[in-house]
Amino acid sequence: MSSHGDPIPMTSRKGGPLTGEAHVPGDKSISHRSLILGALSVGETRITGLLEGQDVLDTGKAMRAFGAEVTDHGGGEWTVHGVGVGGFAEPDQVIDCGNSGTGVRLIMGAMATSPITATFTGDASLNARPMGRVTDPLALFGAQAFGRDGGRLPMTIVGASDPVPVRYTVPVPSAQVKSAVLLAGLNAPGETVVIEKEATRDHTERMLAGFGAELSVEETEEGRVITLNGQPELVPQTIIVPRDPSSAAFPVCAALLVEGSDVLVPNIGLNPTRAGLFYTLQEMGADLTFENMREEGGEPVADLRARFSPEMEGIAVPPERAASMIDEYPVLSVVAAFAKGRTEMRGVKELRVKECDRIDAMAKGLRAAGIEVEEGEDWWVVHGRGHGDVPGGVTVESRLDHRIAMSFLVMGLATQSPMRVDDGGPIATSFPIFEELMTGLGAGLTRSN
Ligand SMILES: O=C(O)C1=C[C@@H](OP(=O)(O)O)[C@@H](O)[C@H](O)C1
Ligand SMILES: C=C(OP(=O)(O)O)C(=O)O
Known about the structure:
This protein is α/β, with parallel strands linked by helices. It contains twelve helices and 24 strands. It has two domains: 10-26 and 242-447, Alpha-beta prism (UDP-n-acetylglucosamine1-carboxyvinyl-transferase, Chain); 28-150 and 160-230, Alpha-beta prism (UDP-n-acetylglucosamine1-carboxyvinyl-transferase, Chain), CATH 3.65.10. Helices cover 28% and strands 29% of the residues. The protein has a four-stranded mixed sheet. The protein has a four-stranded mixed sheet with strand order 2-15-17-16. β4 and β5 form a beta hairpin. α2 packs parallel to α3. The structure holds shikimate-3-phosphate and phosphoenolpyruvate. Shikimate-3-phosphate is lined by residues 29, 101-102, 174-176, 179, 201, 326-327, 350. Residues 13-436 form the Enolpyruvate transferase domain. Residues 1-27 are annotated as: Disordered.
């Protein structure tokens, strides 16, 4: 069931080629951070191209509850009048972050070093996800957490009234944990140091520097060492949010799988901490090219061109690439089903604690659709059957997980029989125009009550 309304069953089926341009929405990670850092600045931040998915809208609502003025001017233009570092007010309502792990974890970090108390909740998916990974480091600053069932939402955070800076090595590869600690460090005096053994998406570091924080990043034998000087005055920014590579993954993969397709996905950020899927697809033999490579706002950007690729082969995805494509494994496993041979995905334990257990959800659906899948705690292998030979013809559960829903809908565009998902509602959390965009390319996607 979708927590945002009645379930929306959806069906996808084989049809003609996908052609044209796919203008995907703004980056989800950068959209959350734009609102939060805007709220922590003094003055007006202007944002163009904000993702208006439910996850980000919930973060905007939360920033209002903490005292910032967040205004939607229409067409992806937003402004945030911030209250400054340490300026958050105590909310007089429960903060509902909906389906968003990024939203709740970053906001907990941002409020944990102010002398205020806030209670957080979410939908059934978010309330089942682990929060101890964030509250453990926040306790070192002096914040207290009172959660359900050993660290789940609903949870109350009592912010530290006299925060101390911390030095923290992130125990799991997680940009959300790293970001929560850095955001908490903003209102602690002195230097907060965060060490990550594996590099994860670096938007928080880049954006904090852009907003005027004093921050350094050093590559050492211990890993990436990020040092932040506390209590800066953040300076409001004008932000143009780049388009989301994680959303681009869906039209790109669909074009590779559907006979005769040729799709251009313009203006996609290829930050190396995000672009792992595209290199993996190229290694599998996909006809995927980066056109018009350029730099925008200090980040590499390209137009992605994806064409039907019937001869792809399975590969062993390098585990050290996992963080740079963590949200893309579900749709990669779909591509792998249509490639020849084994696609091995290792070092991906984090997939088990996303909106659902993504290895379990994909493995069950793929098996039902005629694909052999092996799995262990932190790995899985998909045995591809090659183009034209994937049966499909089943209904799968999307488990309140947008990426599971979109992945199986992409799959159904190339299976012998249609694929149906029980609820496409969660897609609106990250890619509200998915249905319109895909049908605009020619995809056979319908709501199927
Ligand atoms: O920091 C972020 O914006 C995100 C980090 C990742 O989560 P983890 O930090 O849990 O790996 C990713 O899965 C999520 O979609 C967005
Ligand atoms: C894991 C995801 O998001 P979040 O953790 O923010 O819920 C995702 O978008 O795939």
